[in-house]
Amino acid sequence: MAAFFDLDKTIIATSSSAAFSKPFLSGGLLTRGDVLRSAYAYFLFHVGSADAVQTERMRQHLSELSTGWDAAKVRRIVTETLHEHIDPVVYAEAVDLIAQHHEQGHDVVVVSASSTELVEPIAAMLGADHVVATRMEIVDGRFTGRIDFYAYGENKAAAMREIAAARGYDLQRCYAYSDSMTDAPMLAAVGHGFAVNPDRALRRMAVENGWGTLSFSRPVALRPRLRPGPTAAVATLVVAAVVGWLVWRGARRRRE
């Protein structure tokens, strides 16, 4: 079995791209104008309808922004600044839930629209087993601006089905967690979908689809937590919420 986790606003309390904007600026990959335009683009994307037009605009923005970047430099900056910029914004509840899935023998898969160069180091730090992320084309060591695979919306669900087929996961027994309406296909692809910190619209969709809901609210430094293991109290609360939802859904299905 496997548990599929969205990254931004689900495992971490911010956007992974935004988290690295400062070191990318210092490293010469971004200008101050790029940072402002990116912030505005992400704002419009998240408050908009996230339809095909919005999605294509964000995709185009990613292409234009990264064109010409040295891929090795991107990886180096992410690796060197990972703990400084990601550690403080990891949700304690997500870390504990990841640990619980591992204890039950489940693979953990991070599924993110951010690029592979950003997602893989974060996933490795979290102890995840596999990654699904946006893949940017690289030629002669530099990003061309072309996106080979955009891990967004239905593409996430398609990638999950591919991994399940390759690794023998029964998706009806698997779990998925996300905070975003755009990840509805991801949550619907498994038997146990959970909406994290849902807004009113996502909460309504969760009710309609029989998904559970979870509240993550405690960003904490990750490294101290990795040494002693997850906090038992928080882990118990999160797991109790998951188990409670499964019991409720089972009872509901029996009534139907």
TrEMBL record:
The keyword Transmembrane helix applies. It comes from the Bacteria. Keywords: Hydrolase, Magnesium, Membrane, Metal-binding, Transmembrane, Transmembrane helix. This is HAD superfamily hydrolase (TIGR01490 family). NCBIfam families: HAD-SF-IB, HAD-SF-IB-hyp1. SUPFAM superfamilies: HAD-like (SSF56784). Belongs to the HAD-like hydrolase superfamily. SerB family. It holds the Pfam family HAD. The keyword NADP does not apply. GO terms for molecular function: hydrolase activity; metal ion binding. The chain crosses the membrane at residues 229-248.
